[in-house]
Backbone:
C-alpha cells in the first residue's frame, strides 16, 4: 500500500507507473459482520452504538470484472446510510448482498460474511476492467453511488428506474470507507481540481441527491422565485438544498435546531430561518397524535418570513416527525419532495390538505447518471461548495457514524482513508483561493 500512496503523492507519476503498481492481496476496510446482525436486538434506535458494530478489518482484494475499476481511496465520508447499516435498520444490509449475489456469477462476489461500507470516495484509478475506455490508471476521480445493470429498457430514460438499481456501499459490497474500492466505471467522475481529497469526497451522495430532489424535473423542478422549505438546512443534505435554492434564484426557508446551525445558514446567504428548538415546535402531542395547531403555527411563521406567501416546495427528509406539517404548509398546487425518513418511515398526514389543494408528493432517491454528473460539475466550477465540517481517520469511523446518528455534526463528516493528512490533492490553487471562504464555511463555525 505504501507504493500506491507514494505514487499518488508524487508529482511526476504517469499512467504507466500506476498500471505497473503491484496490487496488494488485502486492504483495510470498515466492515459489518454478518454474524452480528442481532447484536442490537431489543434496543431503541437511539441506544444503538455504531462503534460496536463497525470494524476495521483486513479484507481480500476483490476480482476486477468487466466495466469496473479498482480505486485507491484517499478519502471518503459518512452518510445516513452508513448509520442505518451500522445499526441494522430498517433491515440488515446482508439481505441486499444476498439478493445481489443471486443475480450473476460476477455479482456473487458481493455476497460475503462481511460488508465493506461507504457510498462516497475521492481517489485514484489503479486498474480498469475489460471494455473500459474512458478511464485509465492514474486518473483522479470521485464516485457517485448509483450501481445499475441496465439490461432492462426501464432504466434507459432514467437510470434510477433500472430494476437492478442499487446504492454502492450500501446495497453492494466493496464501498468507499476503505483503502481500496471496487466501482463500476460509469460511477466515476472527475475530481474537482480545487478541492482536497477529503473535500472532494464529501459532496457525492448528498449533493447528487439534493440536485435530483430539488432541481431536476424528476424531483421538484425548482424555478426562480420559488419559496422552498428546507428541513435540517445546515445538515449533510439540507446544506446542499440551501445552496441550490440560493443559486437557482429561489428563497430557502431554513429550518434548523440551534443558533449555531442558523449562523451556518446565514453564512450561506439565507435570510429566512426558523429555529424549531428556540420556537418550541412540537408536531406530535404523543406517539399517536399530531398537533395541527403546530402545523398552523409553522404556516403562519413561514408567511411572516415570505411576505405572506406559502412555500412552493418542501424539501423533506426527516419523515415521520415532520411530514404532516410539510403537507399542511405547502401552497395549493405545491410539491412535497421526499428522499428519506431519518425520524421514521411510517408517515402520517391529513389527506384533505393534499387532495383538495392539488398538492403533489414526489418520491426522490439519489440521482441518475446525468444528474450526478451535473451536480459534480457545479462543484468543479465552484458554484456549489462542499459542506465538510470535521474529518476523522479510518480507525475513527465508528465515532464519526455515532456523531451523525446523534445529530452532533454539521454539514458532512469526512474520513481519511489512504491520505496521510488533511489538505492534500489540490491541483487548481487559483480557483481554490477564490472560493476558500465558502469551502471552509462549515469548518469555521
Residues:
Amino acid at each position: 500500500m505504501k507504493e500506491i500512496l507514494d505514487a499518488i503523492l508524487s508529482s511526476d507519476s504517469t499512467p504507466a507507473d500506476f498500471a505497473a503498481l503491484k496490487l496488494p492481496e488485502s486492504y483495510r476496510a470498515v466492515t459489518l459482520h454478518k454474524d452480528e446482525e442481532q447484536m442490537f436486538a431489543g434496543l431503541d434506535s437511539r441506544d444503538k452504538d455504531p462503534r460496536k458494530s463497525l470494524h476495521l478489518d483486513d479484507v481480500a482484494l476483490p476480482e476486477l470484472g468487466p466495466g469496473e475499476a479498482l480505486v485507491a481511496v484517499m478519502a471518503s465520508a459518512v452518510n445516513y446510510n452508513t448509520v442505518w447499516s451500522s445499526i441494522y435498520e430498517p433491515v440488515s444490509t446482508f439481505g441486499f448482498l444476498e439478493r445481489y449475489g443471486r443475480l450473476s456469477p460476477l455479482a456473487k462476489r458481493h455476497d460475503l460474511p462481511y460488508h465493506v461500507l461507504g457510498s462516497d470516495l475521492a481517489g485514484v484509478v489503479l486498474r480498469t476492467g475489460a471494455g473500459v475506455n474512458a478511464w485509465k490508471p492514474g486518473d483522479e476521480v470521485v464516485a457517485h453511488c448509483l450501481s445499475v445493470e441496465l439490461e432492462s429498457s426501464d432504466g434507459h430514460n432514467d437510470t434510477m428506474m433500472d430494476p437492478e438499481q442499487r446504492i454502492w456501499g450500501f446495497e453492494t459490497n466493496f464501498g468507499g470507507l476503505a483503502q481500496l474500492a471496487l466501482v463500476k466505471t460509469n460511477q466515476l467522475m472527475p475530481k474537482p481540481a480545487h478541492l482536497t481529497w477529503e473535500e472532494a469526497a464529501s459532496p457525492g451522495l448528498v449533493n447528487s441527491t439534493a440536485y435530483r430532489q430539488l432541481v431536476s424535473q424528476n424531483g421538484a423542478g425548482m424555478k426562480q422565485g420559488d419559496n422552498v422549505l428546507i428541513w435540517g438546512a445546515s445538515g449533510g443534505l439540507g446544506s446542499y438544498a440551501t445552496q441550490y435554492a440560493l443559486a437557482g434564484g429561489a428563497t430557502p426557508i431554513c429550518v434548523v435546531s440551534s443558533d449555531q446551525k442558523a449562523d451556518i445558514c446565514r453564512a450561506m446567504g439565507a435570510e429566512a430561518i426558523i429555529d424549531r428548538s428556540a420556537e418550541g415546535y412540537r408536531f406530535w402531542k404523543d406517539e399517536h397524535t399530531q398537533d395541527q395547531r403546530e402545523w398552523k403555527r409553522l404556516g403562519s411563521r413561514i408567511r411572516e418570513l415570505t411576505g405572506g406567501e406559502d412555500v412552493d416546495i418542501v424539501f423533506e427528509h426527516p419523515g415521520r416527525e415532520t411530514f404532516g406539517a410539510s403537507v399542511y404548509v405547502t401552497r395549493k398546487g405545491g410539491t412535497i419532495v421526499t428522499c428519506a425518513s431519518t425520524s421514521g418511515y411510517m408517515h402520517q398526514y391529513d389527506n384533505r390538505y393534499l387532495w383538495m389543494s392539488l398538492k403533489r408528493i414526489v418520491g426522490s432517491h439519489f440521482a441518475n447518471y446525468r444528474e450526478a454528473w451535473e451536480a459534480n460539475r457545479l462543484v468543479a466550477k465552484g458554484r456549489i461548495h462542499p459542506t465538510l465540517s470535521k474529518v476523522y481517520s479510518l480507525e475513527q469511523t465508528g465515532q464519526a457514524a455515532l456523531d451523525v446518528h446523534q445529530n452532533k455534526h454539521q454539514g458532512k463528516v469526512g474520513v481519511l482513508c489512504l491520505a496521510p493528512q488533511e489538505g492534500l490533492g489540490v491541483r487548481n490553487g487559483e480557483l481554490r483561493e477564490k472560493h476558500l471562504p465558502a469551502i471552509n464555511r462549515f469548518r469555521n463555525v
Observations:
- The chain has a mean pLDDT of 96.
- The radius of gyration is 21 Å.
- The chain is about 30% helix and 25% strand.
- The CA atoms of residues 124 and 319 lie 37 Å apart.
